[in-house]
């Protein structure tokens, strides 16, 4: 297991390097710059700003300086949010995104596995059809439609929940965003669980357990271990996506997470803030994929040999 984990860790370094390199040069290719305003700045002021932020240097030199700063853990200053560093802004937004994503992750995988298992155990029956219809709706209706609909129904009509905002971590402000963020993931997990569970229930050892008179619950629990392998594989990218927040959900519900920072930074050509967000998301993806690889190896020891 140690050798397996070491190989996976070694593969993360070049992957992160490629992500940082591509992101650095692609954001520079976008038209406009961080100091392009509707009312142009005085040329001398613009020249001073470019010199202060080292944008007057050749691009390859800027790239080398950014890599050196990144190795020290320094994401640099924000170009658009004055008097704040990128690390400070991410430090403000990350707890909100992590809280939102964690709740959505628990809801989506918990409910998705349960629904998928029930659908597989009652294949081609009412429960199965209901789960599949719900999963299809969850995948096809975008969250920028579901979000406002929930706001109209639960907030403006029934007055059960606040419309938007983040009131010092009040859980009532997170109920609708968590539901909207989790719905597509619930649909995917339910479909994955159902398909893999149906295959697992047809395995020879499951038939043997049934022949020995094991209860339906016992059979389901035995089959679930093998059926969870595809679901665990999906856990990495899903967790990284949910825990780093959703651009649309955070914007619709006015949550101060890193998703909104990323949108504002992209619109304002805030190079350092965009890069900081990209690096953070890349690290989350790599870390969660590593966790998934370890879980997968624990569920199926044959994976360690690959």
Describe the protein.
This protein has 306 residues and is an all-alpha fold. The chain has a domain at 92-266: MetI-like (MetI-like fold, Orthogonal Bundle), CATH 1.10.3720.10. The chain has 12 helices and no strands. It has helices spanning 2-29, 43-52, 59-71, 86-121, 126-140, 143-157, 175-201, 204-211, 216-243, 247-252, 258-267, 271-299. It is flat, with a radius of gyration of 24 Å. It starts with a helix and ends in a 7-residue tail after the last helix. The relative contact order is 0.15. Keywords: Cell membrane, Membrane, Transmembrane, Transmembrane helix, Transport. One of its GO terms (cellular component) is plasma membrane.
In terms of topology, how is this protein built?
Elements (H helix, E strand, L loop, with lengths): L1 H28 L13 H10 L6 H13 L14 H36 L4 H15 L2 H15 L17 H27 L2 H8 L4 H28 L3 H6 L5 H10 L3 H29 L7
Helix pairs in contact: 1-12, 4-5, 4-7, 4-9, 4-12, 5-7, 6-7, 7-9, 9-12, 11-12
Average pLDDT, rounded to a whole number, is 83
Structural class, by secondary structure, is mainly alpha
CATH-defined superfamily of the domain at 92-266: MetI-like
Enumerate how many helices there are, as a single number. Answer: 12
Number of strands: 0
Q: What gyration radius follows from the Cα positions, in whole Å?
A: 24 Å
CATH top level of the domain at 92-266 is Mainly Alpha
Task: Identify the overall geometry.
Answer: flat
């Amino acid at each position: 297991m140690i050798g397996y984990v070491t190989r996976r860790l070694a593969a993360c370094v070049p992957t992160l390097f490629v992500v940082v390199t591509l992101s650095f040069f692609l954001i520079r290719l976008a038209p406009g710059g961080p100091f392009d305003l509707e009312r142009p700045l005085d040329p001398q002021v613009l020249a001073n700003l470019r010199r202060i932020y080292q944008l007057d240097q050749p691009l390859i030199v800027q790239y080398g300086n950014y890599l050196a700063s990144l190795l020290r853990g320094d994401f640099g200053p924000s170009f658009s949010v004055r008097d704040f560093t990128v690390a400070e802004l991410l430090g403000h937004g990350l707890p909100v995104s992590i809280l939102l994503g964690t709740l959505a992750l628990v809801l989506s995988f918990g409910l998705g596995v349960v629904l998928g298992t029930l659908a597989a155990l009652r294949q081609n029956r009412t429960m199965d059809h209901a789960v599949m219809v719900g999963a299809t709706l969850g995948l096809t209706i975008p969250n920028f439609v579901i979000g406002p609909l929930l706001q109209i129904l639960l907030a403006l009509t029934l007055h059960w929940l606040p419309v938007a905002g983040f009131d010092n971590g009040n859980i009532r402000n997170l109920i609708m965003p968590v539901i909207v963020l989790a719905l597509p993931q619930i649909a995917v997990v339910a479909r994955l669980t159902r398909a893999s569970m149906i295959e697992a229930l047809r395995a020879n050892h499951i038939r043997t357990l049934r022949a020995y008179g094991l209860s339906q619950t016992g059979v389901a629990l035995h089959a679930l271990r093998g059926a969870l392998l595809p679901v665990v594989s999906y856990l990495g990218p899903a967790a990284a996506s949910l825990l780093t927040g959703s651009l649309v959900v955070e914007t619709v519900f006015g949550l101060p997470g890193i998703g909104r920072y990323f949108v504002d930074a992209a619109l304002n050509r805030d190079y350092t803030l965009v890069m900081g967000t990209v690096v953070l998301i890349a690290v989350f993806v790599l870390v969660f994929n590593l966790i998934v690889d370890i879980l997968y190896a624990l569920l199926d020891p044959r994976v360690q040999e690959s």
